[in-house]
Design a protein that fits this description.
Elements: E1 3-8, H1 13-24, E2 31-38, E3 41-48, H2 51-63, E4 72-78, E5 93-95, E6 99-107, H3 110-119, H4 132-142, H5 147-157, E7 160-168, E8 175-180, E9 185-188, E10 193-196, E11 208-211, E12 217-220, E13 225-228, E14 234-235, E15 240-241, H6 257-263, H7 265-275, E16 297-302, H8 304-321, E17 325-329, H9 330-333, E18 343-350, H10 356-367, E19 371-376, H11 382-386, E20 389-392, H12 405-424, H13 430-451, H14 454-464, E21 469-474, H15 478-493, E22 496-501, E23 518-523, H16 529-541, E24 545-550, H17 552-557, E25 563-566, H18 572-577, H19 579-598
Bound molecules: 6-O-phosphono-alpha-D-glucopyranose (G6P).
The site of 6-O-phosphono-alpha-D-glucopyranose has 14 residues, from α8.
Amino acid sequence: MCGVVAVIGKAEASSLVIEGLKKLEYRGYDSAGIASLDKKKLQVLKSEGKLTNLVNQFDLLISKKSYNDTEIAIGHTRWATHGNVSIENAHPLTSDNKVAVVHNGIIENYASLKKTLISEGYVFSSVTDTEVIPHLFTKYIKQGNDFLESGKLVLKVIKGAFAFIAISVDFPDQLFVSRNSSPIAIGIGDKCNFIGSDAQSIAHLTKRIIYLEDGDYALVKNETLDIFDAQSNIVDRQIIHVNSDIGLINKGGYKHFMKKEMFEQPSIIPQTIGSLFNEDQSININLDKLGFTNKSSLTICAAGTSFYAALIGKYWIEQIADIPVLVDLASEYRYRKPSVFGQTSILVISQSGESLDTLMALRYGKELGLTTTAIVNVTGSTIDREADYSLHTKAGPEIAVASTKSFTSQLIVLFLIAVSLGKKFNNIDANKVNKIKQYLNMLPLALANMLKLEDQIIALSQQIKNSKSVIFLGRGYMYPLALEAALKLKEISYIHAEGFAAGEMKHGPIALIEDGLPVIMFIISDGYEDKSISNLQEAHSRGAKVIVIGDEACLKKASFAEIKIKIPDIDDEFKSLLSPILMAIPAQLLAYHVSRERGTDIDQPRNLAKSVTVE
Ligand code: G6P
């Protein structure tokens, strides 16, 4: 998703901005640009595609001394929403060669504003919603307003979700920044200041960060920072000291971040587990804060992979705690009238903590009078700050767009919520809880053993890399996992993939089966395996290329399958209860290796963004 960065008061600001943009690359983008002020001149550089194109252009101009790297610059990575990927639509967008703006979000009323501005003589060079912002600045500056006043007037007329930064040749020592729903972090330096879409993008410049709150705007100079709230009151926002290692992100010797993140799972999962236990071995989840002083039902909202984690959480909470769980896509929940009858709380799940749909679902839940809890990976993110109660996955920075270690960490939190609720409402006894603790201790080794399936998964990937379509089937816990496996595969390999409940095949999807279509089933002996294998048999009879990834007993029963991958031997109850976490590994490995075989951009797949800050 779009990322913004700015530097003021530090030499070679444009170079520093580019460094910041590199740290935002993981969010996904399709063009990039920078603008800076050289005395009374605006310098703008833009390029389509990867940041290296912009860097090459920049280096060339610097070597020819055609670009002056001064002390004030803004930059942007664009994920196209309004208008195709082109230099014209790339940011910064300018007006009159005097004002430049970088923007993340959507200006919803841009069409009417644009019409008025055109009637007033302003010429638009892009088809973006953003371009109204620099023209509005020009209009208000021409009317005699200073930069701060002009920014305030712009904010009065634009509607939508946005974070933007503006510079103007008329105010060469000032940045105007504003935040409404889209995240903005301001970094405090020594006689210099920095702005970024997240703390990570400016952590190489300072560790002292202020997060603007919704409706805030600020005038930033070298040595001063004036922040105003939505009512234009001057406000103090807390300075947070970010981790010194937040900016140190590397692939650790792996070819892709995704591979590193998959292989980190055995070592990072214990961190999430550890954070959820107190010293006396009790579970460190405050059920009162979660809204469960009494038994009631629970709504969980999320998007993408986090949504599939939510579905698995439903299965666990209903089985282990006997508590009804409703799972909703965040983007749907906020636009319908959900009934909160018998409910006290809403749980949202988000790796980034910035997905706008999920944030809005949380706010909507609050409006409906529910207690809000968030499972987030990024501490200090908007969702983390706005939730009444947060449970953190301790997965560390996840850079690859396709979520892997965050997903399994989210599952750990959901599983322990289920156990905690089950215990509180006497649905499980102390023996069972002790057993579960043993299973959690066994989990890292089990995950490491699952990763050893890699060679077999590589062989499987070679068999399906040229398929036009792939179907995943699952029953019980393996149903949401089938949905997640399909999402993972389509996200990074661009192969059309769908997940279905095994029993649902005969109600429609079976019409899709044709000779050679790969139908993949994750399966373990859970008491329902015979039913699932019958469904698989139906696909086999119609010519599908049946692939089974499961335990030995299941593989024996599915002897007709063309490809069989046996998972390591594990205790039956452990395997059955924690199967979604275990089976996530082959699902992730498969998506990764099919994509690698196909040569796609694994870490930054086309059209996708890591942090989706638009609706
Ligand atoms: C985007 C990504 C998905 C991700 C989803 C939710 O759509 O492409 O991979 O699962 O956002 O992200 P969140 O940060 O809220 O978990």
